[in-house]
Amino acid sequence: MSLKTPRKDLLDIASLSDEEIEFVLANAVPFKDLFKRSVKKVPTLKGRTVLTLFYEPSTRTRSSFEVAANRLSADVTHFDIESSSVVKGESVLDTVETLESMRADYIVVRHKQSGTPNLIAKNTRASVINAGDGWHAHPTQALLDAFTLREKMRDLRGARALIVGDIQHSRVARSTSLILRRLGMSLAYLAPGSMMPRETPDEVGLFGNWDDALSWRPDVVYLLRVQSERLDEPFFPTAAEYHKNYGLTDARVGILRERGLWLMHPGPVNRGVEITDTGMNYERSLINAQVENGIAVRMSVLYWLRPGALEDS
Ligand code: CP
User: Fold this and answer.
1) How does residue 313 score in pLDDT terms, banded at 50, 70 and 90?
2) Which residue, 106, 129, 200, 274, is the most exposed by fewest CB within 10 angstroms?
3) Are 244 and 302 in a shared domain?
4) Are residues 201 and 157 in the same domain?
């Protein structure tokens, strides 16, 4: 499979064509096959440099990109914000100008301000990959979620996903909702009123309690993390209250088990808030598969993007 137009940056899901989404998902399959070999490395990006620039904490996304780049034989450097001149007040663009002088080929960036990866992309020849910006987008999370579901369900057309939790403040909910709908899934949200998005497409079901949401007969339940660090003031009275009304309690895990539903969560989880230990051990949980697939999907993204594509084309 090849694409007519090269793309320099991955900034969101909305700007991708169907063909590009298929390209990334399809090429992640052979990259994942590599993981079964004793030598998991290919020379695809030998001589290329990948910089990870995380202005917000990350466990999965950053390490996943670093493993992905290593497996493609790229040179990987983590730009340590805490010990950099950013703490002395250096602006994002001044930092990027410095990195540009180092001739990085890819910059993987996470920032609390929506739109920062777009700004960086306009000011560098390197391919910029959005690893999460504010409430806006987390495109590689969406791609790995779609890949993980397709691996289990094959064709997603007509399948139903229920997304539960802090949808309003979640870049994961935004990006994953977009891709799952593009692949033909029906979506519904379950959230307290304070966490429900203000505007949703008419086709997306909106529920305020688990009984109604489960009556909709989802195939997949996708739990979101309660992002306390993004909330200036709490949107629910207590964590215990949230858990009782919107969390995946042990009793609700029992219902998922009876019906054979898939369970997903982007991580990191708040145990005892959106999920219990029982939920984490549920046999149809795809949480670990999401992490493993993240590496294959990010290898596919690095393989797909073309640093300097705009200038070259
Ligand atoms: N899913 C996700 O973005 O996790 P991290 O914050 O650990 O990268």
Assistant:
1) very low
2) 200
3) no
4) yes
Which ligand 1 atom is nearest residue 62's CA?
8
The residue whose C-alpha atom lies closest to atom 6 belonging to ligand 1 is 58
Q: What is the pLDDT of residues 46-90, one digit of tens each?
A: 999 999 999 999 999 999 999 999 999 999 999 878 777 777 778
Task: Identify the domain containing residue 284 by its residue range.
Answer: 139-291
- Pocket-forming residues, ligand 1, beta carbon under 6 Å: 58-61, 132, 141, 266-268
| 81 part of a folded domain | yes
Instruction: State the CB neighbour count (10 A cutoff) for residue 74.
Output: 21
Question: Is residue 142 classed exposed, middle or buried when 0-12, 13-18 and 19+ CB atoms within 10 A define those classes?
Answer: buried
Q: Which of 56, 61, 111, 269 to mutate to test the pocket of ligand 1 (most atoms within 8 A of CB)?
A: 61
- Residue 113: inside a domain, yes or no? yes
Domain count, the chain: 2
d(CA 180, CA 269): 22
What is the separation, in whole angstroms, between the first and last Cα of the chain? 19
96-136, pLDDT tens digit by residue?
888 888 899 999 999 999 999 999 999 999 999 999 999 99
pLDDT score recorded for residue 54: 95
Quote the ligand 1 centre to 63 CA distance (angstroms).
9
Q: Tell the residue nearest (CA) to atom 3 of ligand 1.
A: 61
Q: Which helix (H) or strand (E) holds 49?
A: strand 49-54
Distance in angstroms (rounded) separating the CA atoms of residues 149 and 286: 9
Examine the domain organization and report whether 102 and 156 are in the same domain: no
Judgement on whether residues 301 and 245 belong to the same structural domain of the protein? no
Q: Are both 89 and 182 inside the same structural domain? A: no
Q: How remote is the CA of residue 57 from the centroid of ligand 1, in Å?
A: 8
